[in-house]
Amino acid sequence: IESLRSDKWGQYAPAIARWEAVLGRPAPAPTETTAKGAQRLWSRFVEWMMGLPAGWVTDLGLTRNDELKILGNGVVRQQAAAATRAWVCDMRAERAA
Known about the structure:
Elements: H1 2-9, H2 13-23, E1 31-33, E2 39-41, H3 43-49, H4 64-73, H5 77-96
Antiparallel strand pairs: 1-2
Helix pairs in contact: 1-2
């Protein structure tokens, strides 16, 4: 199975596997096929990369452009949590000083 993963994700296979383990669900395909046969970024993959629950944005009935706009303007929850923790630790250190 690892060789199949490497064929699909190339040099990014280890990172994809780690994130799949963190989220507890497999990565969706990174692209989707348009009606004309072209490949384009799939908003479900962006949603997955951001660590959001499946369908958090993509099951709202929005256009693909709106989904990508919302996802692009969003904050990755893990980064927000890390920033909040750092700020709280700084505030505690200031008060203790």
